[in-house]
Design a protein that fits this description.
2 domains; alpha/beta
């Protein structure tokens, strides 16, 4: 019989992205189930500051110190993973918990693979964003030699982590990975699916966004505009596009331009304005509110997601499906497979500007109305309710068990195998190099 999990720490050191929204879903589920007084939130300072007291009532909220947060969010993946592990272990020792739930478990693969634990009979659960061991089975290719090597290394880390008796449940945002793990990986029965919850659709912002040019097909690229987002390849594709296409379309890029690509982005944009005057490109280099984003999505015809060999899932697909907008997306990995399987739009090699230009031309012909339909958008959105997400997280966090039936590594008094002892037999230098490849 599994012992009852009496107290759980929920950890998140990164205040960006999904964190606040997910914590809100989890806290609301805990309130419904009467579990908030058995939860400790160990979170980034920015998250601790914005979570409202009525929502957290009964739960202990502990903010990471500035130094802890810096160590958890900087350095190599290996360094970040070990920093997160040490922070949670320190809290677990001080206050006593039976379980720990990590909103993002990817960086924790390294300490788990090394046999680390939080203490005897303390279970570990969490969400894996970017499993890649099964990518060879997808239609979109391997993403090149570098991506293939990362996939092989991460697979080895996942296998070793699954052998760790402290790991109770590994929840995968990739819906294809659990079946693969259960069929092909030792301990794969620990892997279960969880769907990324769809965000609430806000009311439209009055007078938001640009006025559309009549007769043109509108494309939208939104979010944090980093190099992996494909904005540079998009501008290059517009450079190559025929004049006839440029006169049919307008492109909006809405989101903060990352400093790492800012100079290249604006140089390409200036060259496009000078050399291709028929191109219509609107850029809003700033963060947009949810209401403004809703307005832009309502006005657009097609959402652009030209990621560059991006690993894992993306909220862009969910947002597009909510507004019944087809997408142009990378063909590689999970994103490409989801687009193909659910008929969400076009999946292509977005690293090649000429292929991306071809996709824009196809989309401009019929706005992809023949490729995607409302029923398939709804199929993709099924089981993405916030309530379902919160309930599933709590179920995993509070039912986890330290699996004493598996081979136990030699633990010290803290329930930790120090990385220097290398119980897995992987040379430390190789492990640290591999950790840098885990992204």
């Amino acid at each position: 019989m599994q012992p009852e999990i009496r107290r759980v720490v929920i950890f998140e050191s990164d205040p960006r992205g999904h964190a606040r929204e997910w914590l809100t879903h989890i806290l609301k589920a805990a309130e419904r189930q009467g579990l908030r007084n058995r939860m400790v939130l160990l979170v980034a300072r920015e998250l601790a500051d914005v979570l409202p007291v009525p929502l957290t009532g009964g739960a202990d909220v502990v903010a990471l110190s500035e130094g802890e947060q810096r160590l958890c969010n900087t350095g190599s993946a290996f360094q970040r993973g070990m920093a997160k592990w040490r922070v949670v272990r320190r809290l677990a020792r001080r206050i006593g918990v039976d379980g720990a739930f990590f909103l993002s478990l990817d960086h924790l693969l390294a300490p788990l693979a090394l046999g680390c634990g939080l203490g005897k009979n303390t279970s570990v659960t969490g969400i894996l964003f970017r499993p890649t061991a099964h990518y060879d089975a997808f239609e979109g290719g391997t993403g090149g030699a570098g991506a293939w090597l990362k996939q092989r290394i991460k697979r080895d880390f996942v296998v070793r982590a699954l052998r760790n008796p402290a790991l109770s449940t590994l929840m995968s945002l990739d819906p294809y990975f659990p079946d693969y793990a259960q069929r092909h990986l030792p301990g794969g029965g620990k892997v279960v699916p969880i769907d990324d919850p769809a965000p609430t659709m806000p009311a439209l912002a009055p007078e938001a966004g640009e006025t559309r040019r009549p007769g043109r097909t509108a494309f939208l690229l939104f979010g944090e505009i980093t190099e992996r987002k494909g904005a540079l390849q998009l501008l290059q594709a517009l450079h190559q596009a025929p004049v006839s296409l440029l006169r049919q379309i307008e492109v909006s890029i809405a989101g903060r331009i990352d400093s790492g690509i800012e100079e290249r982005f604006y140089r390409l944009l200036r060259e496009l304005e000078w050399g291709r005057p028929d191109a219509m490109v609107h850029v809003e280099d700033r963060w947009a509110s949810d209401a403004e984003l809703a307005d832009r999505l309502t006005r657009t015809d097609i959402v652009l997601a030209p990621y560059q060999n991006f690993v894992g899932s993306s909220g862009v697909l969910i947002r597009a499906a909510q507004y019944r907008k087809p997408v142009i997306c990378q063909g590689f990995g999970l994103l490409g497979q989801l687009v193909r399987d659910f008929g969400l739009g076009i999946a292509t090699d977005t690293s090649d500007p000429s292929r991306l230009a071809q996709a824009l031309e196809i989309a401009a012909e019929d706005r992809l109305q023949g490729t995607a339909c409302v029923a398939r958008f709804q199929d993709f959105l099924n089981n993405r309710e916030a309530e379902t997400f919160g309930n599933r997280v709590l179920e995993a966090a509070f039912s986890g068990n330290y699996n004493t039936t598996l081979r136990q590594p030699s633990l010290n008094a803290d329930g930790l195998v120090e990385p220097e002892k290398m119980v897995t037999g992987v040379p430390r230098l190789v492990t640290r190099m591999a950790g840098r490849l885990l992204k």
